[in-house]
């Protein structure tokens, strides 16, 4: 699924996968979220509601640029460093085509459905 993303006011290419949790996330769009750092690995933000995690694909370790959902806390995570080992609690929703440096310093993201 194509989405339109701006990171600190600059457009970046991004896609969501076709998993049920990613489709549920797409139902929340448009979103503008303030980001904060988490463990020097990811930028995180709270979502307006928890996503339905049923039907999630097999867990994989997060990589730089991944858009993920941490189910226990219900938050969005944008990885600017490779993440921890695969966990059923961390669902990969999509990917941002952006440098680790740009993502690591990001303060605000806007995500919209592509026209």
Largest sheet: 9 strands, antiparallel
Structural class of the secondary elements? mainly beta
Shape label: globular
Q: What's the total number of strands?
A: 9
Structural commentary:
This protein has 2 helices and 9 strands; from the N terminus they run ββαββββββαβ. It has a 9-stranded antiparallel β-sheet with strand order 3-9-1-2-8-6-7-5-4. The chain is mainly beta. The model has no long low-confidence stretch (mean pLDDT 96).
Question: Brief overview, please?
Answer:
10% of the residues lie in helices and 43% in strands. By secondary structure, the chain is mostly beta strands.
Key features of this structure:
9 strands, globular, Cyclophilin, nine-stranded antiparallel β-sheet, single chain, 115 residues, mainly beta
Task: Chart the SSEs and their pairings.
Layout: E1 2-7, E2 10-16, H1 20-26, E3 31-34, E4 36-38, E5 42-46, E6 66-70, E7 75-79, E8 90-97, H2 100-104, E9 108-113
Antiparallel strand pairs: 1-2, 1-9, 2-8, 3-9, 4-5, 5-7, 6-7, 6-8
């Amino acid at each position: 699924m194509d989405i339109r993303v701006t990171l600190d006011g600059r457009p970046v290419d991004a896609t969501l996968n076709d998993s049920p949790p990613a489709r549920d996330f797409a139902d929340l769009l448009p979103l503008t979220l303030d980001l904060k750092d988490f463990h020097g690995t990811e930028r995180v933000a709270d979502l307006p509601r928890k996503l339905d995690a049923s039907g999630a694909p097999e867990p994989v370790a997060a990589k730089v640029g991944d858009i993920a959902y941490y189910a226990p806390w219900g938050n969005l995570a944008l990885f600017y460093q490779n993440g921890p080992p695969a966990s059923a609690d961390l669902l990969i929703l999509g990917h941002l085509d952006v440098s680790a440096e740009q993502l690591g310093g990001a303060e605000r993201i806007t995500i919209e459905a592509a026209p």
